[in-house]
Specification:
two-stranded parallel sheet; about 130 residues; alpha/beta; Rossmann fold; about 10% strand
């Protein structure tokens, strides 16, 4: 089984791939920013080239943002990054994963969220805290 590991932080990604290989597995690191369509497409293509086809995917990219900043003071740049990574990144990943899985008629995708995806925080975290 071959694993394609991706994230924006190259050093940590390379280290994780090395640990997988040392444990007897196969892994290749592909640095990817899920906000970028071309980078996501490149990642999926690398997975297909390495394994012949795409059978499964685990989407786990996500950021928290500024948890203790009130809505009125929240940075639009930070908000846009959260939406681009946590929502658009999952959409882009699934879009191109599904295109590959359709070619052979099956596949499994797991999208992971933190607990923040299920339960809102009591302090900060737009939009609940409107102080």
């Amino acid at each position: 089984m071959q694993f394609r590991l991706w994230q924006r932080r190259q050093a940590e990604g390379e280290e994780t791939a090395r640990l997988v290989r040392e444990a007897g597995g196969q892994a290749v690191f592909v640095q990817t920013d899920v906000r970028d369509t071309e980078q996501v497409q490149r990642l999926i293509q690398a997975a297909v080239e390495g394994g012949g086809r795409l059978d499964c995917a685990f989407n786990n990219a996500g950021i928290e943002g500024d948890a203790f900043v009130h809505t009125a003071d929240y940075s639009e740049t930070t908000w846009n990054d959260i939406i681009a990574i946590n929502l658009t990144g999952v959409f882009l990943s699934m879009k191109y994963e599904l295109q590959q899985m359709r070619k052979h008629g099956s596949g499994t995708i797991v999208n992971m969220s933190s607990i923040a995806g299920l339960v809102g925080g009591a302090v900060g975290s737009p939009p609940p805290n409107m102080e």
